[in-house]
Amino acid sequence: MRRAILRGMAAAGIAAMAMASFAGSASAQSLLEKIKNGETIRIGFSNEIPWAYPGENNEPLGFVNAMTIDILKRLGTTKVEPIVTEWGSLIPGLQAGRFDIITGGMFILPERCRNVLFTEPLGKGADGLLVPKGNPEELHSYQDVRDKGLTFVTASGYDSVKYAQEVGIADDKIMQVAGPAEIVQAVKAGRAAAGAGDYFTMKKFADQDDSTELADPFTPPAIGYPAFAFLPNQQEAVDAFNAVMKDYIGSDEMMASVGKYGYTKAALPDGTTTAELCKG
Q: In this structure, which topology does domain 126-223 adopt according to CATH?
């Protein structure tokens, strides 16, 4: 009986080793190999209207997802699985193997370049400052929020956190929440005097709620450049995306895909490179 048990344990061990070897081989597979083999490509994004967000039956919507689908089609696949997560979980999710590409419109920042590989920029953009209707505190910049000692709200992982800290808003005055819907609620409830996030996203929410608006005029703290993000071992995939993007960005095909989401030619890249942005 003992020998039978030992033989069973040995067989189980061999099977486990084989499975581990298979899993290791699968995890080492490149994105281009997955495309070539007809496998489903998993795209990760947060609920960031109109950049990337889920529709009915988890359909990937938003202009970055539209670009992703167009580019993947040019590379040879239409098989896509959308995976939605909180913004702050996008890079950890990519590192954990939950998805193959971050398509949420993530801005290229030096600290992010240490963890992921970015393609060249797919556009440019800036923050919008959400305030109560009528802008009662007369806020037109991050500095105004700082100078008046008011509470500022944004989402955890947003560039806005860094910008707020850089202009000197005290950490105890920076409220970090899950996403844009929570930013709006904090401003509406009076828990924050102003909230910030990407201009497109903030405008979409402000247009849907009569109790809020975007500060106008507003001086953004910086111009951001979004891109697709990949694992550091996927340089070939980044190169392939960049090669397609040379002809795709600004093309009639692209503008037809992204126009319904509010992306216009004014948002096209301006020649700033990822190498420059990663240097800071």
A: D-Maltodextrin-Binding Protein; domain 2 (3.40.190)
| pTM (2 d.p.) | 0.77
Burial of residue 158 (number of CB atoms within 10 Å: 0-12, 13-18, 19+): buried
∠ at Cα 36 (35, 38), nearest 5°? 65
Per-residue confidence (pLDDT) for residue 8, from 0 to 100: 46
pLDDT value at position 269? Answer: 97
Where is 44: in which H helix or E strand? Answer: strand 41-45
- Domain boundary assignment for the chain: 30-124+225-268, 126-223
Topology of 30-124+225-268 in CATH? D-Maltodextrin-Binding Protein; domain 2 (3.40.190)
Residue 267 to residues 43, 118, 252, 280: CA-CA distances in angstroms? 23, 18, 15, 21
Q: SS3 for 3?
A: helix
With a cut of 80, say whether residue 22 has pLDDT above it. Answer: no
Q: How much is the average pLDDT of 82-87?
A: 96
Tell whether the model's pLDDT for residue 58 goes beyond 80.
Answer: yes
**Strand partners for 227:** 106
- Which of 135, 127, 190 has its CA nearest to residue 160? 127
On the CB side of 234, CA atoms within 13 Å amount to 30
